[in-house]
Amino acid sequence: MENLWRAATGQDPNPDDYRGVEFWTDPERAGWLTKQGDYIKTWRRRWFVLKQGKLLWFKNPVSVTRGSIPRGVVSVGGCLTVKGAEDVVNKAFAFELSTRDSTMYFVADTEKEKEDWINSIGRSIVQHSRSVTDSEVVDYDSKSR
């Protein structure tokens, strides 16, 4: 019933948002986070996968297969900041991910997990930012000295 409701209200992500991302294998980071809903501001525990500049979430890790449809996806290249948000949502281990238009809130299970997610998402933002093109990326290790 919930899937029918999500489809009817257009809440499932557009497949183009994650096309070509093999999220079911070798993620950069994966784990449980609690996410605040977009419309109804309840908190729900979801399984998150970070891969190829996409943050995708699923109901649980068992539902992450080749044929899965994520419950949501964010292109982190369009995000501006990821930072702690305990004071904003009044929850321990909270952090926020902000775009130009909106802010999403998440809660990790521990301080270490929160920091690991912030660091991983932050690296992904830098790697996939629209402001950095491939021609601007310099591989300092390959430069002759």
TrEMBL record:
It comes from Herrania umbratica. Residues 26-126 form the PH domain. InterPro entries: PH-like_dom_sf (IPR011993), PH_domain (IPR001849), PI-Interact_SigTrans_Reg (IPR051707). PANTHER family: PH DOMAIN-CONTAINING PROTEIN, TANDEM PH DOMAIN CONTAINING PROTEIN. This is Pleckstrin homology domain-containing protein 1-like. SUPFAM superfamilies: PH domain-like. Pfam families: PH. SMART domains: PH.
